């Protein structure tokens, strides 16, 4: 029957005439009896009828309104999942698109729009009700997978509703909860879903030329940012996530008032502390640092940023979130106008990650600390995180250096803090840990790219450390890749030709490289093959002719190895080898 409705134009009109009967005789009793299968089938049928003939529905007759009323009831119907409500979304989108697509110059659009504004207003209420946080088996607030998927599928429809109602009416609808801010029983579920609905239509709202009063958001931000850690239960952190999305989306408006900056930063600091809301709040922090740099530079606000950065030593965030936070703070500090304050602030930010890395170095001095494997593993993890944060700082500084925001003096100071720490790590036994060695190499590469010519004085030591560590830990391909990055950056300069050749000779002497003489070995060590061919490719592309001639025998041998590796079963290794052969 549903297929017939879709394929034959005359059938929708016939079915539409029967909608009042279907609604009264079939749907309403099914809703009263909670007969989910019947409700789902009727909802699907009515949606197909409506989608097949949106023009008939848009005429707004009694039959059409009976159809929309029936589907509104289906959306609002509560069940263990969201399949029934979700099955109606395409109908509502098609109807909204039809109404919005009516020629704007005709009076018909305004008439139809006025007729259906109450319908879509009621639809928004029903969607907000169904999209509220659920509770798990223990009664704790949660957003299960089904609800997450339902919310993801709502974005297009919420945008359509916003366009139909108009941005001011949409926002007024969301903010019309009548919440009592003096009460201790704020309905956080209702607040959270409305913030979610606000963040979903951010682009549409921002494009509207109307002015909006977002003071209610700041009321909630002040309430949330003043909560103690004990008060921040699971429910509130879900609320933090939605508010974080809103702050990130509307940061330009919210940060336009200087008085808002401190509570917004405190809010982000609280939300970052829990995994549920850390990503949304770290992105919100980045947007605030980008959109309100002059206000961020107030001493009290800078202290909040340092407090946030120092709190990351606990290691309870995702690495991606930590990097986002450090990049945001680096962006804010790089635009500080007073040079000495900028220098000391960036140095302080770098040092906030220093202690975690320094602790792992101290273990070399006191071997008894290794006797506790759990504590040692935790120390390694915190050190890796600290190094990734340092890498994020230098990575972001590269842009600031290019734009002239950060001058040479500051770069030299920061490099003077970082390199001694990395050198100690390179010479420590901890480099056998693959995660730590990768983090060290990443920090080194980021520092090299941002420091530019200031890095040249360290090149002999850097290449020595990379070569020595590769000979010690030959499965750690990060040393090869980082050496290749150094050659890419400095290999074109004649004065470093001899250094590049020595590095090539040392790396090629490794037994793991010598063993790359069969496709079987290449299949066993694909990462090593890719790193080795990447290094040799950079050597050929970036080094002076004299260096290439001096290494001709090594290059010939590397070409032979690449020919062997190109026959490997491992796709990545074979492609890397063939890529090298094409440039050789």
From TrEMBL:
It comes from the Eukaryota. Pfam families: TPR_TNPO3_IPO13_2nd. InterPro entries: ARM-like, ARM-type_fold, Importin_beta-like_NTR, TPR_TNPO3_IPO13_2nd. It comes from Sorghum bicolor. This is Exportin-1/Importin-beta-like domain-containing protein. Coiled coil: none annotated. SUPFAM superfamilies: ARM repeat. Gene3D superfamilies: Leucine-rich Repeat Variant (1.25.10.10).
């Amino acid at each position: 029957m549903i297929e017939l409705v879709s394929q034959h134009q005359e059938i929708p009109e016939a079915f539409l005439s029967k909608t009042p009967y279907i609604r009264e005789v079939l749907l309403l009793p099914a809703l009263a009896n909670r007969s989910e299968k019947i409700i789902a089938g009727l909802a699907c049928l009515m949606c197909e009828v409506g989608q097949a003939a949106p023009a008939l529905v848009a005429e707004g007759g009694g039959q059409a309104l009976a159809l929309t009323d029936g589907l509104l009831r289906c959306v609002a119907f509560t069940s263990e999942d969201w399949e029934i409500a979700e099955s109606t979304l395409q109908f509502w989108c098609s109807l909204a698109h039809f109404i919005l697509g009516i020629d704007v110059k005709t009076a018909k659009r305004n008439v139809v729009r006025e007729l259906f504004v109450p319908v879509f207003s009621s639809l928004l209420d029903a969607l907000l009700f169904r999209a509220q946080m659920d509770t798990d088996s223990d009664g704790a607030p949660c957003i299960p997978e089904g609800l997450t998927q339902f919310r993801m599928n709502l974005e297009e429809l919420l945008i359509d509703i916003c366009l139909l109602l108009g941005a001011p009416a949409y926002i007024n609808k969301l903010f019309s909860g009548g919440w009592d801010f003096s009460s201790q029983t704020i309905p956080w579920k209702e607040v959270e879903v409305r913030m979610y609905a606000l963040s979903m239509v951010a682009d549409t709202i921002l494009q509207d030329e109307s002015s909006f009063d977002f003071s209610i958001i700041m009321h909630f931000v002040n309430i949330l940012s003043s909560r103690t850690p004990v008060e921040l239960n699971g429910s509130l952190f879900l609320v933090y996530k939605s508010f974080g999305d809103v702050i990130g989306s509307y940061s330009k408006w919210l940060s336009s008032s200087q008085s808002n900056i401190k509570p917004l930063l405190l809010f982000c600091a609280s939300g970052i502390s829990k995994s549920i809301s850390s990503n949304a709040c770290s992105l919100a922090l980045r947007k605030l640092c980008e959109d309100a740099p002059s206000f961020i530079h107030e001493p009290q606000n800078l202290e909040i940023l340092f407090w946030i950065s120092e709190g990351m030593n606990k290691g309870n965030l995702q690495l991606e979130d930590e990097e986002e936070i450090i990049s945001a703070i680096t962006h804010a500090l790089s635009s500080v106008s007073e040079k000495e304050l900028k220098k000391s602030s960036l140095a302080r930010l770098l040092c906030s990650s220093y202690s975690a890395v320094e602790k792992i170095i101290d273990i070399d001095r006191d071997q008894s600390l290794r006797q506790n494997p759990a504590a040692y593993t935790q120390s390694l993890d915190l050190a890796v995180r600290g190094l990734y944060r340092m890498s994020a700082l230098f990575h972001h500084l590269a842009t600031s250096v290019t734009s002239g925001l950060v001058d040479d003096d500051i770069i030299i100071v920061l490099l003077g803090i970082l390199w001694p720490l990395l050198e100690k790590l390179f010479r420590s036994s901890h480099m056998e840990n693959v995660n730590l060695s990768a983090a060290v190499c990443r920090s080194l590469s980021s520092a090299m790219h941002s420091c530019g010519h200031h890095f040249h004085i360290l090149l002999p030591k850097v290449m020595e450390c990379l070569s020595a560590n590769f000979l010690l830990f030959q499965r750690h391909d990060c040393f090869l890749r980082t050496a290749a990055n150094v050659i890419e950056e400095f290999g074109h300069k004649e004065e470093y030709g001899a250094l590049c050749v020595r590095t090539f000779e040392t790396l090629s002497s490794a037994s793991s490289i010598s063993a790359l003489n069969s496709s079987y070995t290449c299949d066993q060590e694909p990462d090593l093959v890719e790193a080795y061919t990447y290094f040799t490719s950079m050597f050929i592309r970036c080094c002076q002719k004299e260096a290439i001639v001096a290494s001709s025998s090594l290059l010939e041998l590397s070409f032979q190895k690449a020919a062997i590796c190109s026959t490997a079963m491992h796709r990545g290794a074979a492609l890397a080898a063939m890529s090298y052969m094409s440039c050789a």
